[in-house]
Design a protein that fits this description.
- It contains four helices and eleven strands.
- With 205 residues, the protein is of the alpha+beta class.
- The chain is globular, with a radius of gyration of 18 Å.
- It has a five-stranded mixed sheet, with no helix packed on it. Strands 5-7-6 form a three-stranded antiparallel sheet.
C-alpha cells in the first residue's frame, strides 16, 4: 500500500537535552496516497518500524527552529548551476560556514528562490537514528512548510514535551518561522498545557 509515514522529530536543542532522543515518544501519522489519515498517535522510533517497513516512504518533519529559510534573488541559470552557486549566494546571510550545512533551493519564481538551510551534522545524526525504521525511502521537510496558511490568519503548530516547547508558524504571506524553548525556559504557567498530538491535514504528495 502506497502510504507515507510522517514523523515529527524533536528539535536539535531538545535532542541535545535527552540521554537518547530516539527513545522519546514522537507524534506520527500514516497517510494514504489519497491523503487520508490511516493511523496517528505517538510512538518511539523503534515502535514505528512496524509502519515504516510497509510504507512507501518515511517523511521526517524537522523542527522549524532547525531549518533556516532564506529568500534570495538569483540571475537566470540552470538548476545545476544554481546548486553549485548556492554557498556563495547565501554565505553573507549565514552565521557559519556553508560547507557545514545542507542547502536546498526551491524552484525559481520571478527571479527569487527560497533556500532551506539545515546543519549537516544534525541531519547525519538524524539519519543514523532513523536507520532503525528500515524505511524504503526517506525524505525530510521543515515542519513550518507543511502548514497551510489561512486567507486572513497565520497557522501555528505547537509541539510540547517534557524537554521543550516547539513552535512552527506559517504566515499569511507563506513565510515560515520556528522557535524552540527548552524546559528551563518554560517558566510561565500560561505556556503549560497537556501535550498535543500532531494533526495532519488531508494532503497529497
Amino acid at each position: 500500500m502506497a502510504n507515507t509515514l510522517y514523523i515529527l522529530l524533536p528539535s536539535k536543542a531538545a535532542a541535545h537535552d535527552a540521554p537518547d532522543w530516539a527513545t522519546l515518544v514522537r507524534p506520527f501519522a500514516l497517510v494514504s496516497a489519497e491523503g487520508k489519515i490511516v493511523q496517528q498517535g505517538s510512538e518511539t522510533l523503534s515502535a514505528l518500524k512496524q509502519f515504516a517497513v510497509n510504507a512507501n516512504q518515511v517523511a521526517l518533519l524537522l523542527a522549524a527552529s532547525d531549518v533556516s529559510l532564506i529568500s534570495i534573488k538569483v540571475p537566470p541559470m540552470s538548476h545545476a548551476k544554481l546548486k553549485l552557486a548556492l554557498p556563495n549566494l547565501i554565505e553573507d546571510q549565514l552565521l557559519g560556514d556553508p560547507a557545514d550545512a545542507i542547502l536546498l533551493a526551491s524552484p525559481v519564481e520571478q527571479g527569487v528562490t527560497t533556500v532551506a538551510v539545515v546543519e549537516k551534522a544534525w541531519m547525519q545524526a538524524v539519519y543514523q537514528k532513523v536507520l532503525v525504521l528500515g524505511a524504503k525511502k526517506l525524505s525530510a521537510f521543515a515542519t513550518s512548510l507543511a502548514l497551510k496558511p489561512l486567507a486572513h490568519a497565520a497557522v501555528a503548530l505547537v509541539d510540547e514535551s517534557d524537554l521543550s516547547l516547539e513552535l512552527a508558524i506559517c504566515a499569511i504571506d507563506k513565510s515560515a518561522r520556528g522557535v524552540s524553548i527548552n524546559a528551563m525556559q518554560l517558566t510561565l504557567t500560561a505556556w503549560r498545557s497537556p501535550p498535543r498530538q500532531m494533526k495532519v491535514q488531508n494532503y497529497k504528495n
